[in-house]
Design brief:
The chain is mainly α. It has ten helices and two strands, in the order ααβααααβαααα.
């Protein structure tokens, strides 16, 4: 997750990072979905950059599009309902667990924590395995404080600007859904991405899920993937 080698800002909820292995690199072909999502972001938000990447230099276009989004957020943005969907989708399909923050943060400021977290929960429950993994990566940033006052929704009632509550219903639903997904879904990337944000302490769950916590720990400790085996030992010791 983003906690592996990325910086956090004071006031943000973050996981302990010292001593953690970084998430393994993902195949380059996973950027194809990101390019499509980023093109939608450019089009819907009206960013000042070419609407599609040059087939011969997609990485340069990606950097330009990201910079255009940052500049627009600093200068002020009014986000439509369509903007919410394309920003969350881009966050889910961004393979970089640090840069996906660029799509999460304006969504939070315009539409509120509950709506963003609910959308990510939907991807976790019903998305493809790639989308489930991406939702877990994006979830890391979903409790950030609101720090973009110039990014607003076109509909003034679209955002709930209350600070997130770790005991809120959507956070509880995410925690339980993530535990079940880690245990039941054998996809390597899904497990790698869920694990860093997964509580492995029984008091975090109702009694009927305590056995599932034991199962998750056993799966992680015996997993053939070195990253998962390494990570779980840090988390159960916290």
């Amino acid at each position: 997750m983003a906690g592996d080698g990325s910086e956090t800002t004071a006031g943000e909820t973050a996981l302990p990072v010292q001593g953690f292995m970084a998430l393994p690199e993902r195949p380059e072909d996973r950027r194809e979905a990101l390019y499509r999502c980023l093109a939608d972001v450019v089009r819907v938000l009206g960013l000042e950059v070419a609407p599609e990447p040059d087939p011969g230099d997609r990485r340069t276009w990606e950097h330009l599009a990201r910079a255009a989004l940052r500049d627009a957020c600093r200068q002020g943005l009014n986000l439509s309902e369509e903007s919410f969907d394309v920003l969350v989708k881009a966050a889910v399909h961004d393979p970089d667990p640090s840069f996906n923050r660029q799509f999460v943060e304006p969504s939070l400021n315009a539409f509120g924590h509950n709506r963003v977290q609910s959308a990510l929960l939907g991807y976790l429950r019903t998305g493809t395995d790639r989308e489930r993994a991406g939702a877990a990566r994006a979830w890391y940033w979903s409790a950030m404080p609101l720090r973009m006052p110039l990014v607003r929704a076109e509909n003034p009632g679209a955002a709930d600007r209350a600070e997130p509550d770790d005991g809120s219903a959507v956070v509880t639903e995410w925690r339980e859904a993530a535990l079940r997904e880690f245990v039941s879904n054998e996809d390597l990337d899904v497990r790698r991405c869920i694990l860093p944000g997964l509580s492995l302490h029984k008091p975090s769950y109702p009694p009927e899920l305590h056995d599932l916590v034991d199962t998750a720990v056993a799966i992680a400790r015996s997993h053939p993937d070195e990253y998962i085996r390494h990570r779980v030992e840090h988390q159960v010791g916290d």
